[in-house]
Amino acid sequence: MSNDKDTLRAEYPEELIKSGVRGKYAKSYREGTNVVLIDPDLHKLFPDSEAVNRALREYVSSKRTAT
């Protein structure tokens, strides 16, 4: 990368840059996230968070009744 003076590229309109909101996601970032990567073969079985949550609840429920 060049250390030349920073310039705004033509594909980034200045109006778009100025319309941004500073700290828009700061609160949610501070609260944290819980991201888990699923292997591709499991993604076919669990395509979204709803499917994963349902399966985990069923698993936990079966463990509670087994003990």
What does it look like?
- The protein has one domain.
- Helix content is 49%, strand content 0%.
- The chain is built from 4 helices and no strands.
- The longest helix is centred in the C-terminal third of the chain and has 18 residues.
- It starts with 13 loop residues before the first helix and ends with a helix.
| C-alpha-based Rg, rounded | 22 Å
> How does the major sheet shape up?
none
Shape designation: elongated
Percentage of β-strand residues: under 5%
Q: Summarize the helix and strand pattern as letters.
A: HHHH
What kind of oligomer do you see?
single chain
Helix content: 40-55%
Q: What is the count of distinct domains? A: 1
Query: Structural class of the helix and strand makeup?
Result: mainly alpha
Number of helices: 4
Mean pLDDT: 83
Question: How many DSSP E strands?
Answer: 0
The parts where pLDDT drops under 50 for at least 5 residues are none
End-to-end Cα distance: 60 Å
What tags apply to this protein structure?
mainly alpha; single chain; 67 residues
Describe the structure in brief.
The protein has 67 residues and is an all-alpha fold. It has helices spanning 14-18, 26-31, 40-43, 49-66.
Fold blueprint:
Layout: H1 14-18, H2 26-31, H3 40-43, H4 49-66
